Amino acid sequence: MYLLSQNKQDQYLKELFDFLRIPSISADPKYKKSVKEAAKWLANSISLAGCENIKIISTKGHPIVYGEKIINSNLPTILVYGHYDVQPPDPINLWDSNPFNPIIKKTDTHPNGAIFARGSCDDKGQMFMHIKALELMISNNDLPCNVKFIIEGEEEVGSDNLEIFIRENSDHLKANVILISDTGILDNNQPSITTGLRGLSYMEVKITGPNRDLHSGLYGGTVANPINTLCDMISSLKDNKNRVAIPGFYDDVIELTSEERKEMSKVPFSDELFKKSLDINLTSGEIGFSTPERKSIRPTLDVNGIWGGYTGEGAKTVIPSEAYAKISMRLVPNQNWKKISNLFEKHFKKIAPLSVKVEVTTHHGGQAYVTPTENIAYKAAHIAYEKSFGKPPFAVRDGGSIPIVPMFEEVLGCKTILMGFGLDSDAIHSPNEHFGVFNFFKGIETIPHFYNNFVKLYNK
Ligand code: BES
Ligand code: MN
Ligand code: MN
Q1: Looking at 350, 366, 382, which one is the last position of a domain?
Q2: Which of 366, 397, 417 is the last residue of a domain?
Q3: What is the pLDDT of residue 316?
Q4: CA 115 to CA 121: how far, in whole Å?
Q5: Count of domains observed in the chain
Q6: What residues contact 221, with CB distance under 8 A and at least 6 apart?
C-alpha cells in the first residue's frame, strides 16, 4: 500500500485540475481543438507515469490515446480503458461554479470535499486514478504485470471510431483482462462492483403536419397538430403497467429467477432516501419491480428531449408544421439494440395517423453486458475493494451503458472488470458534476491491490 504525503496528494489534485480545465466536449464540433489538446495532455501524462510506445491515433472523429508498459511477456497483461471526452455542460446557468474551472467544496455525501467540474467523475477523474496508480507502481519498482492503456475521446458520442480501431488492431490489444473505472459504488462506506451494464438504443423522430406553421385560430380544430399527435404517440409507447408497448420489445429479455432477485434485494437500498435525494413524492416504473430492479435488470423507454412550435417569450398563436423528439431505450442482456431500433421504427410509423408524416432515425446504440463473478479477475477486484474499504463489496448491476465493453468481449474475447468509484449523487451528465476527493484517492489505493491480486491468482 502506498502512503501519499500531503505534498503528493496536492500534486495529484493539481494535475487533475489542469486536465479538467480542458473543455474536451466531444459532441460539439466547436471544441474539436480542445479535445485534441486533452489527448496531448494525456499522452504526456501517461509518458511521465512511465508508459512507453505512446501514440495519439487520429480517427475520423477525435483521437485515441495509447500507451503501454510491457515488462515481461510471460506475465499477464491488464488493458486499462477510459475516456477523456466529457458531456456538454449545459444547462450552464444551473452550475454554481464554472464547469471548466474545478474547485473543491464539501457536500453532505463528501464531507472531505469533492471536485466540482465537468468530467471530474465521468470520466477524467476516474481515468486519471489509473495513471497515478501506474506511476506509483512503476516508480516503486513493483508493477507486477504488463499494462496497456487505451483512452478514447468519443465515449459520450457512441465510440464509433474506437470500434473500428479495435477491430483493426485486435492483435495489438491482446490482454488477459480489461479494467475500467467509469461506474460507481453504493456509497463511501459500502463498496460495490458493477457486474452489469444496460444496452442502449437511441432514436430521433420527426412528425410533419401541414406544410407551414398555421394561425391557430383560422386552422385550429381542422388539422392534426404535430405536437399533439407526437404526444399521443409517445404516451401510447407505455401501457398501464408501465411496460414498453412496442410489439416484440420483451421477446429476447432474460427474466431473472426468483433466487437471483432475492439475492439482488439483499443489497442495501432505501426508497425513502432515493425519493428524498430527488425531491419526489413517488417513484414510478414497471409494475412488479423494485426501484433497484427497474434501474438495472429491466429495459425501459424515455423521452430525452421534445421540441417544436413556439417556445420564445410571451404567447404566439400557432399550429406548428413540425414536432420532434429524441427517445432512448435502455436494454438488458440478450436484447439486440439494432433489432430493437428496427422494432421501434416499424411500430412508430405504424401508429402514426394518416394526418401526419413520420421520419425515424437511429442514433448510436450498444449491447448490454454482464460480468461473470466466477473468474479470477472478479475475485481480485473483490479482494482489492475489501482491502481498501475494510468491507467486502456487493455485486451490483448498473443502469448506464458503456457500449465498447461488450464490443471488447466480441472483438478481443476479453472480459471487463468495472471498478468504479463514483456515487449516483455525483451528478454525472448534470450541472455541478463532482467527484469525492476521498473517492479519488481510494481509487488510487485500490487499483494496485487489483493488479497484485490478479497476478497472484493468475499464477496459482
Ligand atoms: N460512465 C457512463 C456510464 C455509466 C455511469 C455506467 C455510471 C454505469 C454507472 C458513460 O460515460 C455514459 O454516460 N454512457 C452513456 C452511453 C453513451 C453511448 C453515450 C449512457 O449510459 O448514457
Ligand atoms: Mn463514462
Ligand atoms: Mn458519460
Answers
A1: 366
A2: 366
A3: 97
A4: 9
A5: 2
A6: none
Cβ 398 under 6 angstroms from ligand 1: yes
303 touches 238 (CB < 8 A): no
Strand blocks (E) in 213-272: 214-215
Could you say which DSSP state residue 55 is in? E
User: Cβ distance 408 to 178 under 8 Å?
Assistant: yes
- Tracing cell 491515433 back to the chain, one arrives at 57
Q: Is the CB of 445 under 6 A from ligand 1?
A: no
**101 and 206 belong to one structural domain:** no
User: Grid coordinates standing for 239?
Assistant: 401501457
Q: Which pTM does this prediction carry? A: 0.96
Is 79 within a domain? yes
Judgement on whether residues 207 and 145 belong to the same structural domain of the protein:
no
Query: Do residues 144 and 34 both lie within one domain?
Result: yes
Query: Among 435, 434, 421, which residue's Cα sits nearest to residue 95?
Result: 434
Output DSSP code: residue 29: G
How many alpha carbons fall within 13 Å on the CB side of residue 230? 27
155 and 172 both lie in a single domain: yes
What is the C-alpha to C-alpha distance for residues 337 and 199, in angstroms, rounded to an integer? 7
Q: Write out the three cell numbers for 27.
A: 459532441
Same domain for 342 and 234: yes
Q: Quote the domain boundaries for residue 75.
A: 6-197+368-458
Q: How many whole angstroms separate alpha carbon 171 and alpha carbon 173?
A: 5
CA atoms of 75 and 73, how far apart (whole Å): 5
- At residue 1, the pLDDT reads 76
Give pLDDT < 70 ranges for the chain: none
pLDDT recorded at residue 3: 85
Helix axes 6-20, 437-459, angle to 10 degrees: 100
Instruction: For residue 258, tell me if it sits in a domain.
Output: no
Which single residue is written with the C-alpha cell 480489461? 178
The verdict on residue 132 lying in a domain is yes
Mark whether 31 and 162 lie in a shared domain: yes
CATH code, 322: 3.30.70.360
CA of 199 to the centre of ligand 1 (A): 10
* Site to substitute for ligand 1 among 402, 404, 418, 439, most atoms within 8 A of C-beta: 402
Same domain membership, residue 357 and residue 219: yes
Give the bridge partners for 193, in sequence order. 395
Cα(346) to ligand 3 centroid in Å equals 29
CA distance 11 to 67: 22
